[in-house]
From TrEMBL:
This is Zn(2)-C6 fungal-type domain-containing protein. InterPro entries: Zn2-C6_fun-type_DNA-bd_sf, Zn2Cys6_DnaBD. Residues 7-37 form the Zn(2)-C6 fungal-type domain. It comes from Karstenula rhodostoma CBS 690.94. It holds the Pfam family Zn_clus. Keywords: Nucleus. Coiled coil: none annotated. SUPFAM superfamilies: Zn2/Cys6 DNA-binding domain (SSF57701).
Amino acid sequence: MATLRKSCRSCASSKRHCTVQLPSCARCVQRGLTCTYDLQPLSGADADEKCSASLLLKGIGFDTTGYCLLDRAEAYNKHFGNNLDPSFCPPGHNEAQEIIQQCFMNVPEMVTSLRPATFIHPKLQIRTGRSYLSMIRSPLDSAMSLIDLQTLAEIDVGAVPLEEELTALQALLVFAAPLSTSEQPVNREIAEPWLKVAEIWAQHLLSIVSAEILKGRTPWQQWLLAETIRRTIVMAYVLICCFNAWKHGYCSNWLLLESLPFDSRPGLWMAESPQAWIAAAGSGTGKKVGTQLTSLHEFGGMMKAVDSTFCGDTFLSMMAMAHNGSAALPNDSN
């Protein structure tokens, strides 16, 4: 690898030690900072070596799932040319499993205790179709999860109401997540086709959502339903991306995940009454709360300089981690 003359701009301006390396120094990677060197390398690497995937995957800047795909692509283009796919990452990385575990593993307990989970809210009213959330038990049993998945397999999502499809996708994610991180290889093999089903269902759910589903609901219930749909779709792709990154070292859905929106205002999701919801938004009435959508990429960029516990909202803290790495979380959240 080429040798650089001096510290990067970020370390130099902060008067911090810089472990010089391409494409980003260790400090900038850990803190999610843009790493720029003022001087060019003293000696350049061979062009073929620059394009070596094995060399690329050894770089500390690319050894984490929690690293913005767009920032990664920018670094690729700058230092390695534009012929490398930023969806590559080393397989078997622990952070991918950690994201799955923290996003999904406490969901059964939260659901059965009627508390807000990462993407399932106990106060959302399911008015049409069947709710499959009643299938979720705590603790989950892998054998029962397989039986429950077979029950879900019989659903034709194109023939059921949107709210029924929503709860079916939520239940599928809850049952498939622990299988995907199981220590038993056979369970991980079983999980993989179910993640493909989750992707198809998430795509279908996204394609049929319209404002019509919100009619006849209170402002709080409108927001809850819309945000539940958004979070469920995001979580489907979080599970898919993390599993594929961990197992295969590649996932083609990262860019889509970066673009998915959600309401990032802390406290709104954790509210369990319309009054608490209005108070969390700092609004006088429910109609004034509205919806303020932020893509994962925008949210991750804002969170690079913010130390927040997100009012206990695991979804928001995990989205910060998924985008920026575990260093993005406040100390009491690690």
